[in-house]
């Protein structure tokens, strides 16, 4: 453990209560994925307006992550996390007083404060564990994403029986209770305790922001835009997708949406463990390749074909069935969960003293994905009119991410091993170390010799 920590009980409580508090915050952060469907009907909103509504809390939670992460580094994650939960609880309760689209958007901005708990928790938890265990620890913490599934399981049932306002009231109460439990059962992180003991002042914000000039940080941010922003966007959008495409009621749609959210959350623990064991880079390759395949298959729209056959037209329809769709989204959530853990495995390793700032900006960009993408999904529905257009957009994002990652890794490998930059047209001949004359003769035999004075 960092800083010579020997209190294993405090370390364990810090991890598990941080995870539980993040779960509660995430449940509140994604509350519009369920109550938003009813609000859409009540206000007769378009898909674009609905996308903006469900994405607005994600905007707030994303934009404040950088500042909250820095404050967690400076003043300790414990007090900042409690402040986030109390503020989010007040905002969620005030949501029940909204009565128009504009007031719902305003209230949604306040609810989004709950999403800022991520960068606070990442900073707080990372300070309790050594580098070789941070992947697993942060993976466990990140499993708090399962809060999205909690909302999808419980909110529809509460809403059907008591109305959507009671959902907001219950979720606000849960945040307050969790804030009290967290405050009384956790301790300040070891680094903060040691700094207070020595009387050392926290570093200024300018020093914390210095790593943000590195392109590597923004590359990590793009990865997280897909694996986390895409996860949040689909967690918000899938209930609407199930209702619109398959004609399900909101309770069933919420339960099936949870089938995507659960693996997209719990398998994050596995992603952290695999990142510790095999390396985060390898896990990112698994993530992007698997997601590329899933989004490609999900992108294909329902199509009716007419083929001119020998005996007349042959008609058939290709459409992704309900069960295959659910299976593919399950696997997509699985690969995303591995990637979410792998991205944050990089940060304490490359920037050990700047986890709050770097983790904050990566979380900010990732969270912005959760804001931008639902709006983009709704816009594509309104403009293109194809339900699978959301997955087409996801396919493009993951393809760009994979290409950039591979190009960056190849560039780094060439810096470490300059010999990789040399021409390797005939590596077999180079290995045999044949004289030039014999090499040319062999090349002619192989039919690959360039045209020139020595070729015939």
Task: Give a written overview of the molecule.
The protein is mainly alpha-helical. It folds into 2 domains: 2-419, Growth Hormone, Chain: A (Up-down Bundle), CATH 1.20.1250.20; 427-456, no CATH class. The protein has 21 helices and 2 strands. The protein has helices at 8-29, 32-43, 47-63, 65-75, 77-94, 101-111, 117-126, 131-142, 147-162, 164-185, 190-198, 205-209, 215-246, 250-261, 263-278, 280-299, 322-350, 355-383, 389-416, 427-432, 436-446; strands at 303-309, 312-318. Strands 1-2 form a two-stranded antiparallel ribbon. Strand 1 and strand 2 form a beta hairpin. The longest helix has 32 residues, at 215-246. Mean pLDDT is 82; it is low at 1-6 and 445-456.
Number of strands: 2
CATH architecture of the largest domain: Up-down Bundle
- First and last CA, distance: 70 Å
- What share of residues are in beta strands? under 5%
> Considering the protein shown, what is the CATH homologous superfamily of the largest domain?
MFS general substrate transporter like domains
CATH C-level label of the largest domain: Mainly Alpha
State the low-pLDDT regions, or none: 1-6, 445-456
Cα-based radius of gyration, to the nearest Å: 25 Å
Fold-level CATH name of the largest domain: Growth Hormone, Chain: A
């Amino acid at each position: 453990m960092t800083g010579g920590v020997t209190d294993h009980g405090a370390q364990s409580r810090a991890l598990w209560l941080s995870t539980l508090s993040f779960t509660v915050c995430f449940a509140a952060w994604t509350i519009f994925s369920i109550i938003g469907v009813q609000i859409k009907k009540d206000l007769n909103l378009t898909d674009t307006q609905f996308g903006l509504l469900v994405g607005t809390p994600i905007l707030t939670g994303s934009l404040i992550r950088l500042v909250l992460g820095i404050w967690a580094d400076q003043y300790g994650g414990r007090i900042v996390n409690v402040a986030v939960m109390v503020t989010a609880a007040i905002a969620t309760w005030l949501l029940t007083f909204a009565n128009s689209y504009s007031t719902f958007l305003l209230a949604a901005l306040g609810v989004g404060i709950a999403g800022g708990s991520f960068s606070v928790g990442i900073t707080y938890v990372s300070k309790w564990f050594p580098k070789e265990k941070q992947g697993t620890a942060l993976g466990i913490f990140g499993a708090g994403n399962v809060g999205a599934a909690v909302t999808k399981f419980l909110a529809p049932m509460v809403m059907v029986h008591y109305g959507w306002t009671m959902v907001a009231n219950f979720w606000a109460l849960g945040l307050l209770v969790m804030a009290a439990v967290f405050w009384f059962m956790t301790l300040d992180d070891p680094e903060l305790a040691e700094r207070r003991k020595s009387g050392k002042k926290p570093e200024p914000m300018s020093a914390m922001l210095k790593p943000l000039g590195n392109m590597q940080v923004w590359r990590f941010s793009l990865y997280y835009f897909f694996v986390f922003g895409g996860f949040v966007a689909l967690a918000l959008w899938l209930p609407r997708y199930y209702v619109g495409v398959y004609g399900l009621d909101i309770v069933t749609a919420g339960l099936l949406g949870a089938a995507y959210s659960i693996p997209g959350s719990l398998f994050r623990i596995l992603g952290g463990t695999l990142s510790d064991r095999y390396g985060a880079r390898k896990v990112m390759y698994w993530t992007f390749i698997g997601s590329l395949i899933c989004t490609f298959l999900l992108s294909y729209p329902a199509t009716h074909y007419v083929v001119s056959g020998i005996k007349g037209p042959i008609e058939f329809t290709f459409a992704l069935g309900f069960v295959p769709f659910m299976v593919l989204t399950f696997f997509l959530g699985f690969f995303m969960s591995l990637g979410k853990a792998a991205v944050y495995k990089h940060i304490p390793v490359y920037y050990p003293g700047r986890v709050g700032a770097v983790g904050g900006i990566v979380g900010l960009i990732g969270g912005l994905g959760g804001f931008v993408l639902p709006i983009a999904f709704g816009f594509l529905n309104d403009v293109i009119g194809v339900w699978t257009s959301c997955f087409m957009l996801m396919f493009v994002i993951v393809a760009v991410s994979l290409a950039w990652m591979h190009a960056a890794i190849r560039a780094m490998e060439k810096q470490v091993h300059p010999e990789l930059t040399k021409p390797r047209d005939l590596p077999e001949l180079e290995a045999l170390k044949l004289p030039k004359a014999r090499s040319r003769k062999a090349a002619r035999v192989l039919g690959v010799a360039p045209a020139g004075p020595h070729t015939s």
